[in-house]
Design goal:
Blueprint (H helix, E strand, L loop, with lengths): L2 E5 L4 H8 L21 H11 L7 E6 L2 E10 L4 H5 L13 E8 L8 H15 L4 E4 L18 H5 L4 E10 L2 E9 L2
Parallel strand pairs: 4-5
Antiparallel strand pairs: 1-2, 2-3, 3-4, 5-7, 6-7
Length: 187
């Protein structure tokens, strides 16, 4: 099994193949929940299409044997309007322009293969190559398995296994579990 993680820039069709609703009038996030959640579906799709045309792009895609299998949203925190207004996610060292990892999606049929680890490594590397000096995430703290819906933010153990450190507990929750602000310096 060959796994590759690449920036979404220039890969709109791959992103859209599983992140954009197929049925007209269908719902979904299109990874806009933290960006511009109030936009209608056509505007969400156009926004993400435009993001995929310019650097640094909205995130990274995982490919398994050349088939798109997963997504991780990683970008400068300043591009996530909901994070900037958040009363539940703390703001630390904003003057250092942190990058944020806010979402993981692994396609059905590819789950259980460790792709979130690959996506997290790819997200960190993309941030580093784009000039970030630190990256942060807001994963859920769980003592066991977490359901697919609640786990979209990742888990504390996942982030810790990739060199992230707990900075502060947040007031945010996912699936009833507490979320942490975790950071990794890239210097």
């Amino acid at each position: 099994m060959s796994i590759e993680v690449l920036p979404a820039t220039g890969r709109w069709d791959d992103f859209a193949s599983f992140m954009v609703p197929r049925k007209p009038g269908g719902g979904g996030c299109v990874c806009m929940s933290y960006r511009q959640a109030r936009l209608g579906m056509p505007e969400r799709i156009q926004y993400m299409h435009d993001e995929c045309t310019r650097e640094p792009g909205p995130g990274v895609l995982a490919y398994v044997d050349d088939r798109v299998a997963g997504w991780c949203s990683v970008a400068p925190k300043a591009t996530y309007a909901r994070l900037l207004r958040s009363r539940t996610i703390p703001h630390l060292d904003e003057d250092r322009d942190p990058w944020s990892i806010v979402c993981f999606v692994v396609r059905a049929g590819f789950r259980g293969r460790g792709l979130m680890h690959e996506l997290l490594d790819g997200a960190v590397e993309h941030a580093r190559e784009s000039g970030a000096t630190m990256v942060e995430g807001y994963p859920v703290d769980t003592d066991g398995r977490v359901d697919v819906i609640s786990g979209y933010v990742g888990t504390v153990s996942l982030f810790e296994s990739h060199g992230f450190a707990r900075r502060t507990i947040t007031e945010a929750h996912s699936g009833g579990a507490t979320r942490w602000l975790m950071r990794r310096e890239l210097g």
